Amino acid sequence: MRQFLAKTFGGLTPSYYARQLFFGALFGAFFIYMKSRAPLGIDFATVAISVVSTLLYPYSRFVYESVVGFIMGRNMFFVNALLMLFIKVMTMFMCWFLAIFIAPLGLLYLYWHHSRQPTN
Q: What does pTM read for this prediction?
């Protein structure tokens, strides 16, 4: 079991995971704040979903960046910085909001990738 967890959840570099976790936590805090301002307030399910989405966000973002990297290759585009920032924030929000569905793909890939590496 320990080896399975190391190959999946421990498959990202610590710096990448920490960076993505920081941005995921920002989205989680924003979501909880906005939900707390609603007339019905905040409930346990909202907090639980926010925490799970935040913890799975780095793996969701890993899948997104891998797919975009595969499609785009090493091409470089010159676009308006505000437009690019808006698109980046929107894709980050989509990855956070859909992390529960996207992250399992990343975890499966990480397990497969780390299982193929020879152990010396």
A: 0.84
* Amino acid occupying residue 54: T
Per-residue pLDDT tens digits for 15-44: 999 999 999 999 999 999 999 988 888 889
Distance CA 13, CA 86 (A): 27
Q: Output DSSP code: residue 119.
A: P
Q: Where would I find the H helices in 73-119?
A: 81-97, 99-116
Decide if 94 contacts 60 (C-beta within 8 A): no
Give the span between the Cα atoms of 59 and 21, in whole angstroms: 10
For the CA atoms of 86, 88, 89, 95, the dihedral, rounded to the nearest 10 degrees, stands at 140
- Rounded to whole angstroms, the Cα distance separating 50 from 73 reads 32
The SS3 call for residue 118 is coil
